[in-house]
Amino acid sequence: xxxxxISYFSCRTLxxxxxxxxxxxxxxxxxVIKDFYNKKVHRNLRFRMYCNTKKxxxxxxxxxxxxxxxLWKLEYxxxxxxxx
Length: 84
Fold this sequence. Notes:
The protein has helices spanning 2-6, 16-37, 40-83. It is mostly helical.
């Protein structure tokens, strides 16, 4: 409900008055919804999201490393075949 209200304002405006209005509304809304998002449920969700992101990044890096090693070995073998 509160998040929808802030969508009526633009943070990308060059007009100082409109931007000032946006900041005032954003600060007032953040004070209201702060307690809601600090509940244990939301903290657990943020923590799970953080853990899953780290896990996913680690898997991606491992896959890239594995594939790059495989490609490097293939290139090395092909270069040795040319010389021998």
